[in-house]
Each structure stands twice: as C-alpha cells, then as structure tokens.
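Subject: Interface between my chains keeps coming out wrong

I've been trying for a while to get a sensible model of this assembly. When I model each chain on its own everything looks fine, but I need the whole thing in one frame so I can look at the contacts. Pasting all components below, labels as-is. Any help appreciated, I'm running out of ideas.
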Amino acid sequence: MAKATIHNAREIEELRVACRLAADTLLMVGEHLRPGMTTQDVNTLVHEFTIAHGARPAPLGYRGFPRSVCTSVNDVICHGIPDPTVLRDGDILNVDVTPVMPAVGGWHGDTNATFYIGEPSAQARQVVEVARECLELGIAAVKPGAALGDIGWAIQRHAEANGCSVVREYTGHGIGRRFHSEPAVRHYGQPGVGLRLRRGMTFTIEPMINLGAHACRHLDDGWTVLTRDGSLSAQFEHTVVVTRQGVDVLTARSAPLKGSEDVPWARLGPLASYVEPAAG
Ligand code: MF3
Ligand code: CO
Ligand code: CO
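Reply #2:
Try treating it as a single job with all components included. I did that and got this:
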C-alpha cells in the first residue's frame, strides 16, 4: 500500500519557500521566451536565476539528467533535455523547474507550465488549454478524506471528454525533502479508489495530456519522452498540500504567466493558478 509522509505546519512553511522560488522561476521564464531562442538559453536562464536565489536546480545530475530544467517542445511529453533546438513561431514549450533549497531544510518546489511561442494553431491551443483545465480540476478534487482516484478521475474525464488522452507511464509524486516519493499520483483512475488524503500530505499533480493517443516512445538519450503517434502534448504541474479546508497550491503564482496565462484564449478556471492561495 502506498504511503505518504505527513508534514507539520513548520515544515510546510519551509517547503513553501522553495515552491515560491519555483513559481517565480516560471514567471521569469515567461518574461524572456520568444521565437529564435534555444532550449539551452532557457536552461541558462533557469540555472542562473536558481543559483542567484540561493538554491540549486534539482534536475541537474538527478539520476544523471544533464541539465538544470526540462524543456519539452510540441510532441515531447516530458523530460526534454535543453539543447541548441531553436524555438519557432507556433511551437508549444513546457518548462519544468525544481529548485531545492539546501539552506532551508533541503525542500523541493516542483512546478511546470506550457508556453505558447508566437501564434499557436487551433490544435496547440486545444491541448494546452485542456491540460491547464485538467490540472485545475485535479487540484479541486483534493481535500481530506478524498481518494487519489478522485484526482485521476477528474483529470481523465475532462481530457477524454475533450478528445484528448492522459499519459499513463508518468505520474505526480510525493515531494518534500526528497524530489520524488510515494505516493504516485495517477492522472487517470476511478472515484473512491486508492490512498485516502490526509492533512499535511504534500504531492504534485502534473497531468500530461496528448492530442492523440496516450502511448509514449523514448529517445535513446535515456530521457526524452514523446508521443508515439507524433501528436502534440501539453502539461501543467503544481506542488500542493492537503489542508483542513481542502488544498493549498504551494507553487501558485503571484501574477499571470506571460506567454501562457495572459493570452486571450487562456481558459482560466475558478482555481486559476495566479490567485493567491488561502492560508492553510
Ligand atoms: N520535474 C519533473 C517532475 O515533475 C522531474 C524531472 S526529473 C529530471 O517530476 F531529472 F528530468 F529532472
Ligand atoms: Co513533478
Ligand atoms: Co516537475
């Protein structure tokens, strides 16, 4: 049976520091993205911002990952490695950041978002906006006594009702002093099934949503995960804690995300990620 660590109020406030830096890192990236940049340029921005704020990028060296951030373009589902790939008008780009703060207990803040580079196609808008809504709906299912399957079901139902599919091979995860821990948070499932949520549990929700089928393929770089059918894939991620009232989004942003949330077609739900969270 899956286990989950329960964190106390002091630990949550320490974790919140790392999560706030993660949120600020995505805001910074959004200010800089434009066609002509490379994903390696994004890596440099994230690396230097993280170090300048007294943190370390957890991806660098994690199980041999060679860069400080994951950059996943178009049909890349996740774990894209920054390289000289040039971002072009019409691309979609997911940026996944995880600062760890050695000076503040070694807590990890994990968040990602998908950005529009220039003018997106109707298909690109569809998969990105559905992925954004899936995360919102998954978060809305979090409260003490809910089951992990309630989160997965909320996400799967919305993705499939909108002609998209949910990636099965990768999940959200417990987070804290460790980058990845139990429980695995599936983005598909059935209501009432799985681990019961309790106050103080901390985990990520990070649905990977494909426009086509959910099957993956892997590059021989050992990391890059793509859609098998070549369809577009989008993802959003937040780190959350279960509270007495429901949920606190620890990586909530203090402003709308440029290039993602500020576009006229962004479908921002009632839990829009730039709304400051209620006190835990
Ligand atoms: N940040 C990713 C996640 O959401 C994990 C990336 S592992 C890395 O879980 F090694 F690629 F950085
Ligand atoms: Co994660
Ligand atoms: Co992440």
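Reply #3:
Confirming on my end. The longest helix spans residues 9-32.
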